[in-house]
Amino acid sequence: MTVRPSLSSDWPQALIHKAARIRLIALDVDGIMSDGKLYFSATGDELKSFNILDGLGLKQLMAAGITVAVITGRRSPLTEKRMTDLGIPHLMQGREDKRQALDELVRDMNIQPDEIAYMGDDLPDLPALRFAGLGITVPNGYWLVRQHADYCTSAAGGSGAVREACDLILTAQNKLEAALACYLETDA
């Protein structure tokens, strides 16, 4: 049985070609991994919600040999905890210039820009998104970012958009079936 995500038939061949080259995906947090809203308790504690689907998708990417990085303009202990829990090797917080942060990763990893996917939703993400070989955004992202992205997910930020991007990359690299195989095994 061949497994394909329901959107795979909607992915243009040019997009699949770009996604097939990806060795690193770099992600923004607020608006991509979370819904972009800032929640505060009555005592001033910051709260965030992360989608569990996105987390498993990122783990599947890493297991398939794709490096994951998170580049965010804000500093948050909650973000650090979530990325640590997921085993994400590159967390760059407090980085307003995300393109510069991406340049550092390119140098450190000795990769080319066309081997990078960048996923962001707002103006600070635009230079990094345009630099990367595959720029991804979300439908609730800023209009100019959507205009410059190679792909806009059907899921909103914080609602499975990262998982959709992970499935795109895994599909393009013929690695999705292997990533899903252990969940489809049956007892004999």
TrEMBL record:
Stored Gene3D superfamilies: HAD superfamily/HAD-like
Required cofactor names: Mg(2+)
EC number: 3.1.3.45
Catalytic reactions of this protein: 3-deoxy-alpha-D-manno-2-octulosonate-8-phosphate + H2O = 3-deoxy-alpha-D-manno-oct-2-ulosonate + phosphate
UniProt keyword list: Hydrolase, Lipopolysaccharide biosynthesis, Magnesium, Metal-binding
Alphabetized PANTHER family for the sequence: HAD SUPERFAMILY MEMBERS CMAS AND KDSC, N-ACYLNEURAMINATE CYTIDYLYLTRANSFERASE
Primary role: Catalyzes the hydrolysis of 3-deoxy-D-manno-octulosonate 8-phosphate (KDO 8-P) to 3-deoxy-D-manno-octulosonate (KDO) and inorganic phosphate.
SUBUNIT field: Homotetramer.
UniProt name for this protein: 3-deoxy-D-manno-octulosonate 8-phosphate phosphatase KdsC
Organism name: Marinobacter koreensis
